[in-house]
């Protein structure tokens, strides 16, 4: 089956996720800049999550450039990814409202970990469907950045209970790692 509906549906879900996150930003009660101070943790959480959704959207888009068609297994793997991504607004709000406390930071990292695992499952399903010699399989390669991300999340989650700001820094570090779009698929498609 074609991939067009899956791409359109995924783009729509990601747009809704971002919309839900921005709707959680509450207008301050006050007309001076001091009224914004209590919202700084909420805003920082929003920015980080917006970047993460953008990273997933960007990489998801690149992934589909190397894919010709999908099957039922791929549809479910994609829904699995979208499920975990859909939890980001909730954990973002909890983390921001509680000023980067241990449990919200740990749950945020857990959701990020499961998003990364779901993305990995999706890539495996796509590679299995298209073959080990496919453009996608060649482009993904050993996926070192993806594996490093999983390790950083796994470290940051328990670290949340020792120092939540250091755990938060790990999440920022992973986002910075992925901010530069993954060019593996583009390079492979151009060769």
Automatic annotation (TrEMBL):
Coiled coil: none annotated. It is a multi-pass membrane protein. Keywords: Ion channel, Ion transport, Membrane, Potassium, Potassium channel, Potassium transport, Transmembrane, Transmembrane helix, Transport. The chain crosses the membrane at residues 12-29, 35-55, 75-96, 102-127, 148-180. It catalyses: K(+)(in) = K(+)(out). It is found in: Membrane. InterPro entries: TMEM175-like. Belongs to the TMEM175 family. This is DUF1211 domain-containing protein.
């Amino acid at each position: 089956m074609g991939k067009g509906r899956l791409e359109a549906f995924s783009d729509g879900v990601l747009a809704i996720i971002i919309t839900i996150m921005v709707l959680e930003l509450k207008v301050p009660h006050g007309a001076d800049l001091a009224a914004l101070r209590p919202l700084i943790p909420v805003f920082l959480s929003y920015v980080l999550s917006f970047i993460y959704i953008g990273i997933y959207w960007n990489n998801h888009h690149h992934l589909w450039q190397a894919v010709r068609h999908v099957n039922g297994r791929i549809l479910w793997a994609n829904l699995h990814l979208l499920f975990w991504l859909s939890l980001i607004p909730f954990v973002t709000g909890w983390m921001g409202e509680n000023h980067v406390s241990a449990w919200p930071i740990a749950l945020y990292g857990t959701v990020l970990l499961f998003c990364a695992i779901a993305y990995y499952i999706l890539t495996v399903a796509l590679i299995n469907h298209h073959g080990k010699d496919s453009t996608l399989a060649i482009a993904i390669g050993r996926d070192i950045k993806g594996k490093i991300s999983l390790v950083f999340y796994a470290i940051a989650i328990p670290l949340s209970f020792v120092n939540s700001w250091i755990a938060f820094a790990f999440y920022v570090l992973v986002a910075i790692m992925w901010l530069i779009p993954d060019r593996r698929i583009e390079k492979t498609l151009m060769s």
